[in-house]
Amino acid sequence: MGDLLLVRHGETEWSVSGRHTSWTDLPLTSHGEEQAKSLAPLLSRRTFARVLTSPLERAVRTAELAGLSGAVTDPDLHEWDYGGYEGVTTVGIHRTRPGWDLWTDGVPPGAPGRPGESPAEVGARADRVLSRVDGILAGDAGDVVLVAHAHFLRVLTARRLGLPPAQGRLFQLATGTVSRLSTEHDRPVVAEWNVRA
Asked: Which end of the chain is more exposed for a tag (fewer CB within 10 A), N or C?
């Protein structure tokens, strides 16, 4: 059975400042590009049956720089839709909404076409991705790698482990890292987390 590798894209200006970034399609910083390149040796040692990326530039570029060829974009790998909190930091949100928590409260609607998402809605997307890759992982063609975003990958990890989507809060995920979900005694486990070159 193959492993599921999770690659969080490299650093962007907004990841440095802590601004919530979903639909704003920011490029990697020069440091983010170096982070992505540094992942190539970690990933080159594995055989991939499938490489999927978020459609956003920061994920696609990370996959390219990390040497992941043949990547296919999957819209379900998009970051959490932050709705009205797009571009706002948690500190900024707490100024008007003390006690707000993404993992329990979700986000309010934003601009047209940006309704925001609840943890359950992000979890439903993660479940669809997992459903699509399960058959591939069950074979002997290799691992599957997903190149995407912190909050989405955290929710996906929770769902892979059989936890509710909001339990993604337990899995802090740094930019430019590789994490590996595997199995032990036929149960899903976290085998490696936040690995850097």
From this structure: N
Give the C-alpha separation, 4 to 21, whole Å. Answer: 24
Asked if 31 is an active-site residue, the reply is no
For 181, other C-beta atoms within 10 Å of its C-beta total 24
Q: Please report, as a single letter, which amino acid is at residue 187.
A: R
Burial class (CB in 10 A: 0-12, 13-18, 19+), 14: middle
The catalytically annotated residue of 11, 33, 79, 86 is: 79
In angstroms, the CA 92 to CA 56 distance is 25
Catalytic residue status for 34: no
Exactly one of 9, 78, 149, 151 is catalytic; name it. 9
Predicted TM-score (pTM) of the model is 0.97
